[in-house]
Amino acid sequence: MTNTLLILPGDGIGPEVMAEVHRIIDWYGTKRDLKFDVTEDLVGGAAYDAHGKPLSDATMAKAQEVDAVLLGAVGGPKYDKLDFSLKPERGLLRLRKEMDLFANLRPAQCFDALADFSSLKRDVVSGLDIMIVRELTSGIYFGEPRGIIEEGGQRVGLNTQRYTEAEIDRVARSAFELAKKRNNKVCSMEKANVMESGILWREVVQKVHDESYPDVELSHMYADAGGMQLCRWPKQFDVILTDNLFGDLLSDVAAMLTGSLGMLPSASLGAPMENGRPKAMYEPVHGSAPDIAGQGKANPIACILSFAMALRYSFDEGTEATRLEKAVEKVLGDGVRTADLMGAEGGAPVSTLQMGDAILAAL
Amino acid sequence: MTNTLLILPGDGIGPEVMAEVHRIIDWYGTKRDLKFDVTEDLVGGAAYDAHGKPLSDATMAKAQEVDAVLLGAVGGPKYDKLDFSLKPERGLLRLRKEMDLFANLRPAQCFDALADFSSLKRDVVSGLDIMIVRELTSGIYFGEPRGIIEEGGQRVGLNTQRYTEAEIDRVARSAFELAKKRNNKVCSMEKANVMESGILWREVVQKVHDESYPDVELSHMYADAGGMQLCRWPKQFDVILTDNLFGDLLSDVAAMLTGSLGMLPSASLGAPMENGRPKAMYEPVHGSAPDIAGQGKANPIACILSFAMALRYSFDEGTEATRLEKAVEKVLGDGVRTADLMGAEGGAPVSTLQMGDAILAAL
Ligand SMILES: CC(C)[C@H](C(=O)O)[C@@H](O)C(=O)O
Ligand SMILES: CC(C)[C@H](C(=O)O)[C@@H](O)C(=O)O
């Protein structure tokens, strides 16, 4: 089977960090005879600059065909004034929606060598390893009606949160499956106390549990309390299951807690394709960081670890994924640090390229 | 002018912590000749047990007449199975909605004596004093259509986020007014990158700023990034302005960061009444804590500080509010601790009543 990969570096630091992933991919081809058929294309502001929209139909079609899409980052102040439908983010949302990538996996992991970077106390975060499963193709990001409408002489901003039973069911299954390979615990978060969509969410998650995963430990928490508990004692969680909007906030909070924001990858998975592999897109959790773009300062690790997730979830190369993750850990343990990781210890930061060099050497 | 107060202790620890507020109120009457005309009534599960609904019409009518409502907490596992419309929370939401309490003020303040309680590092939180202004009567908590509907043979959970220009305008004004009395900075949070309601929010806030508060420093942040920044370096903020749903999550996260959750009060303010005082309700940020209810262990400080906010915002007794706040700080500085505040230092916790005693003595 060939391994096909579509790389979309995007905006800001996207291209820089993706350059290091290219070198890792080459290493696998040369040194481990693990070859990838790579195409590169545009997304976000870069696509808008070239085609006048944040994702061309041709790129969308390509994304549907490959085994995995690897995305850098989208957005930047240059595009702030664009019409809503043309904003860089729409390119990303179109990929998620049309590929139907309903399960967004966001590991929040604290790298031991970086635990002191967290604004939280060391004992609260060291060793932390939780997985947030965020529903990614429905909810308030996509529900209709939406827009800014006129009503009684004034404008009204409108968005709709909608979840069908089937949408909740499938993402719940993803969370339970993951939990079985981890610590067998799922905590589902919504606002069932004030939102009917939360009531349905809770009910369906419970039903999937009772019928298909009775041995996984399941709890439910209101999302606001969940945010609190994440900050208080995140290690109480294993897998957190939540909707698109709450998942956006909670996964960002969790990511920041680890102190390892520049390090965190994500995977967005859909249904299996004909070849048995899931539709998939991988992207770092960090954004396009326009303030440091083009300076060779960005940390490529989140993007490299996103490729590791691709090895694991798309190419069934779990051993190689672990090899890459261990190489990253070794480099961090050795004290190699990009600028974002410079703390009280001092020392000189390495460039994006030098971080790539170090990881290649560790491989 | 008489000072009228409706006290709704509610469920769980509500009645216990409210008992201490009663003693503080008595102290003001006797020692400072500041008298309150107090009525007490039921809300939440307690009201459901008595009347079969979480807020009777008579109580609602009373709430509309008084200068201020002081609420303890609502909810508990006993009521979990109740129909949505009968849940304790609906009582609270009805009060907010019918009194039109659109501006929810949630100070997140770190008490110096308690800084070590935070899961965050001391330097990140010590001295922290930010104010979250949450829109409280609109957005996805109240928008129509809502419910669990049948569609194509399956159930769909539905909620609607709606914001009118006027709703955004008035709460933005509250935030700017507050900022003027504080550090003159407002950061407004939404998801204008994916939600049209966020676009309108951003636009109206900017307009209110440019037209009426050009001297207040205004910034905009996506709510997920806002959650991150709250965890990373909360002291960058002064006033945070946000909608009902984001405000629910972000204010809880902010509260937890301070390590002073059992200490944090809130005020919910509406339009001025005939006597010039705003419609107002005050409540602690913590919940009903059913696990410790009835044991005399609960920390009454958040509820007492909610009364302090009432002194300031409803009764124009800023000096007396400060007196009460200083008394609380003194007691904490002296090392008096309820069970929730017991840390590594050790020592024996005081009861709810003893904490009340200590604060009365400090007054
Ligand atoms: C860029 C933006 C559209 C996106 C989102 O809100 O989903 C981002 O914040 C994320 O979490 O992946
Ligand atoms: C009890 C609940 C309805 C309420 C809310 O979600 O607004 C609470 O979480 C709060 O923040 O005051």
From TrEMBL, chains A, B:
Cofactor(s) the protein requires to work: Mg(2+); Mn(2+)
A single MF term (Gene Ontology): 3-isopropylmalate dehydrogenase activity
Metabolic or biological pathway, per its Swiss-Prot or TrEMBL entry: Amino-acid biosynthesis; L-leucine biosynthesis; L-leucine from 3-methyl-2-oxobutanoate: step 3/4
Positions marked as site (Important for catalysis): 141, 191
Domain of life: Bacteria
InterPro entries tied to this protein: IsoCit/isopropylmalate_DH_CS, IsoPropMal-DH-like_dom, Isopropylmalate_DH
Main localization of the protein described in the UniProt heading: cytoplasm
Residues reported in the UniProt entry to bind substrate: 96, 106, 134, 224
Record text on cofactor binding: Binds 1 Mg(2+) or Mn(2+) ion per subunit.
Pfam family for this entry, one: Iso_dh
Subcellular location: Cytoplasm
Catalytic activity: (2R,3S)-3-isopropylmalate + NAD(+) = 4-methyl-2-oxopentanoate + CO2 + NADH
Residues that, per the record, bind Mg(2+): 224, 248, 252
Transmembrane region(s): none
Binding site for NAD(+): 76-89, 287-299
Keywords for the protein's UniProt record, in alphabetical order: Amino-acid biosynthesis, Branched-chain amino acid biosynthesis, Cytoplasm, Leucine biosynthesis, Magnesium, Manganese, Metal-binding, NAD, Oxidoreductase
Name of the top EC class for this enzyme: oxidoreductase
Isopropylmalate dehydrogenase-like domain mapped to chain residues: 4-359
EC number, UniProt record: 1.1.1.85
Similarity comment: family membership: Belongs to the isocitrate and isopropylmalate dehydrogenases family. LeuB type 1 subfamily.
Function: Catalyzes the oxidation of 3-carboxy-2-hydroxy-4-methylpentanoate (3-isopropylmalate) to 3-carboxy-4-methyl-2-oxopentanoate. The product decarboxylates to 4-methyl-2 oxopentanoate.
Assembly mode: Homodimer.
Entry protein name: 3-isopropylmalate dehydrogenase
Gene, per the UniProt record: leuB
